Amino acid sequence: MQAKAPTTFGQNSTAADKLPRLALFGLIIILIPGDFVVGSLALSPARVMFLILVPIFLIQFLRGAYGRINIVDILIFAHIFWIILSIARNNPELVVQFAGSNALAVLGGYMLARATIRTPGDFKALVRFTLMVALISVPFVIIESVLGRLLIQETLGRIPGFRTVLLATDEKRLGLFRAGFVFPNPIHYGLIMSLLFVQSLVGMERVWNAGKRTIGAVLSATCCFFSLSSGAVLAVVVQLFLISWHWLTRTLGAQRWVILLLFGIIFYIIAEIGSDRPALIAILSRASFVAGNVYIRQALFEYGMEQLPRTPVFGVGFNEWDFLPPWMPTTMDNFWLLQALVYGIPAFAFIFGAVICGIAAVSRRPFKGIELTSMRLGWCLAMTSMSLTMATVTVWAMTHSLVMFMIGAGVWMIGFTEQTRDESEEQEDAPDPQAIMYTRFLTKPVGHAREMRAGSSGSGHPRPGPVTPSQVSQRNARTRSPIPASPETKT
Fold first, then answer.
1. Maximum separation of any 2 CA atoms in the chain, in Å
2. Coil, strand or helix at 444
């Protein structure tokens, strides 16, 4: 698990850009839907894996094997610490179980990325892996959308002692069942697949040709469609807007993102003033497939905002909300608000700050290589889109670990030292001190000897002239005795 040396930049993706085995193994384990019960604990394969790996990750992390500790690392650890502290205060009887399962799975997803995604080659391989997952999911989600059957979950459910969560597929939209593949909820599937859209079009701009990048984007949009989730579709729309803004204003440099941020703030303020409800709810009501869901989201949002001032520091934990009607569900389709409500405002500030600081720190890296510049932009736009989408959905279980993994998958760029192609070529072209060839008449490197021979055929280099006996004696003395004679031994 030692840190890898930076790879050479400026060249196309090669077969050597493979996803590290630990990352491949970890992602496959995370994607296994279901769990099993041990005593009073419900353990998924991912939680068991993190119970084993996280202590190793922490030791290596503190040793500096994953690079220097940065602001994102500090905020992520602060978030984990605060949510454990919140549960210890609100539900002390659950703190051990919570810390050993939920908090560990969240930290494990992030640390798995920090330990394995360390170079541009690793990052390119991760995008290819996500593309393969999307491609494999297509036949399963088509069957799920048309027939309402989850073949993978049904197969795993036959294993003795293994429990799978079969999604409620009786809800139809546009004449199709909502498809979630192996994820706990269809919108989780759409959220993760949406990240592939901008990574394909922008992040792999100098790695894949235009045809392959288009295929990746179309595949991502197709998966988001089968989820039939307004949040996933909204994520693709936001990414299309960000990509268009990037292409149209690329001559403005970094100033264009400041301008876009100011426009976004002004637009939200105008929407907030001109609407009879929160601007976020007003926007979602126009993008939602089901109008009734918007009403429930608005009611929960309002109750959440009323509860927040009552428990601002440590939240409500796993206790009941104050004044919540019994008929209303306690699930909230807003990840950011849920963090503040359940664990307290500091928990929200730490995790939201980690994402924002990560985007800011990576975007400020002065990379010159076009490949790395594209990867940086692709990851930043993907994280921006994900941050907006998670204001319309909450994540748990495997999706929470995957979200943390995607955040950690770009943190390596903060401390990555770019090595240009010119520097690598200079190192490759430097003469090897061991590869010295002694010719019959002179001592020169091999390359120089070839130039001398080429000079005899009109290259401008004169052929060496006749060598006198004294010159031969001097040459033999030099080659046989590399240590120069002392003044006392001179004749």
1. 110
2. strand
DSSP state of 11: S
Q: How confident is the model at residue 287 (pLDDT cuts 50, 70, 90)?
A: low
With a cut of 60, say whether residue 481 has pLDDT above it. Answer: no
pLDDT at residue 109, as a whole number? 95
Q: What is the pLDDT of residue 457?
A: 44
Q: How many Å apart are CA 180 and CA 186, to the nearest integer?
A: 4
- Is 151 within 8 Å of 143 (Cβ atoms)? yes
Q: What is the DSSP code string of 100-121? A: IIIIHHHHHHHHHHHHH--SHH
Place of tokens 């839907």: 33
Identify which of 263, 265, 260 has the alpha carbon closest to the alpha carbon of residue 250.
Answer: 260
The secondary structure of 292-361 as a DSSP string is HHHHHHHHHHHHHHHHGGGSTTT--TTSPPTT--TTS-S--S-HHHHHHHHH-HHHHHHHHHHHHHHHHH
Give the C-alpha separation, 200 to 197, whole Å. 5
* pTM summary value: 0.79
Q: Which of 322, 375, 374, 401 shows the shortest CA–CA distance to 46?
A: 401
**Mean pLDDT for the chain?**
80
How far apart CA 164 and CA 152 sit, in angstroms, is 9
Whether residue 265 contacts residue 220, with contact meaning beta carbons closer than 8 Å, is answered with no
Q: Per-residue pLDDT for 281 more than 80?
A: no
Cβ-based burial of 89 (10 A; exposed 0-12, middle 13-18, buried ≥19): middle
Q: Which tokens sit at 476?
A: 């033999």
CA distance 15 to 125: 10
Helix (H) or strand (E) holding 445, with range, is strand 443-445
Tokens 């999706």 sit at which residue? Answer: 399
Q: Whole-angstrom Cα distance, residue 139 to residue 151?
A: 10
